[in-house]
Amino acid sequence: MLPTTTTLGAFKGTIQPFVAASAAEKRTPIVVNSPRYFVTCAVGGALACGLTHYAMTPVDMVKCRMQVNKNLYSGVFDGFKKVASAAGARGLYLGGMPTLIGYSLQGMGKYGFYEYFKYKYTGIAGEETAAKYKTMLYLSASASAEVIADVLLCPMEALKVKTQTSATPFSNGFLDGIRKVSAAEGINGFYKGLTPLWLRQIPYTMVKFASFEKTVEAIYKHVLSKPKDQYSPGQQLGVTFAAGYFAGIFCAVVSHPADTLVSKLNNVAKAEGESTGTLAVRILKDLGFTGVWAGLTPRIFMIGTLTALQWFIYDSFKVQTGLPTTGGAAAPKKE
Fold first, then answer.
1. CATH code for residues 30-320
2. What's the confidence (pLDDT) of residue 14?
């Protein structure tokens, strides 16, 4: 659904306190790895993930429908054409509200807890060991953060997929959709896809954060001629975007089979007495090897663009609050 003036106003009102607080506190620098730092990263993550996923709703919807029925559209643009012809421009944003809410919550957990776990695990391992095994630090911190982030995302992901992939209109709106899922399946209707979501998102996020951090390091070390702190914030954000797109391509490939399973799980009804695990096995058998890779091309485009934009928005927000961009140099210690 397209955002209404009321919706955008409400969203603006939600982030206004954070923006105002940021401006008011600019005189007091944010100390890296302080509570205020983690909150700032969480807000930046919410903006980065919520806005980008909402913007990509048309691509996501076509991708989900192709995963559920691989013969529905011949490609992404064919999907756009058919959806727009049947339902107009508003049809391309079907499921937009749960997307905006769900991925804002996920981004808050993903980025905020990633920074927190990096700090905590460095303290546990010791700075020398953490520096020696930086990749393991990135992987473990991002995996831990995503476990929490997906619990926040799962209810809205379930509603989004049901809304986008139902053969007939699933509901009359966001709140009606919540009521229908709750009435039909209770809390399980919102969380039956949690395990597949973990299987999709945890590897995805591990690749996203570790490959991004390593790519940023490699660009400053092997491509550019000067240390990171000798480049302007704008130039550093250019590195952020490039590294983000590179990371996104790997993310899409690694997580796609589980993404297909999540789409199907939230679209296929359980048989009487059938567990979620049994349903998942049945779906995978029906899909076969080629079926789990349906919709990969639009997802590579979607995830590559999303990941690059998310890192760009996230680091831009950090720069605006007086913080350094992510990666490429050792973070200052907490005072």
1. 1.50.40.10
2. 53
What is the C-alpha separation between 16 and 247, in angstroms, rounded?
31
The predicted structure's pLDDT at residue 332: 44
Burial group, residue 239, by CB count within 10 angstroms (0-12, 13-18, 19+): buried
Nearest to 190 by CA among 198, 176, 178, 175: 178
Contact 246, 211 (CB under 8 A): yes
Could you tell me if 158 and 192 are in contact, meaning their C-beta atoms sit under 8 angstroms apart?
yes
Q: What is the CA radius of gyration of the chain?
A: 20
Which pLDDT value is given to residue 76? 78
Q: What is the pLDDT of residue 16?
A: 60
Q: Are 310 and 52 in contact (CB under 8 A)?
A: yes
- Calculate the alpha carbon distances from 288 to 140, 216, 259, 284 in Å: 31, 37, 15, 6
Predicted TM-score of the model (pTM): 0.75
Among the residues of the chain, which ranges form H helices?
5-24, 35-55, 57-68, 76-91, 96-125, 127-132, 134-165, 174-185, 188-191, 194-218, 233-265, 276-291, 296-320
Residues 253 and 148: their CA atoms lie apart, in Å, by 23
* Residues 2, 96: Cα–Cα separation, whole Å: 7
- The list of the chain residues with pLDDT below 70 reads 1-27, 266-267, 269, 329-335
Sign of CA dihedral 194, 248, 3, 5: positive
The pLDDT value given to residue 1: 47
Between CA 147 and CA 205, with CA 239 as vertex, the angle to 5 degrees is: 10
Residue 211's CB is within 10 A of a number of other CB atoms, namely 22
* SS3 at position 81: helix
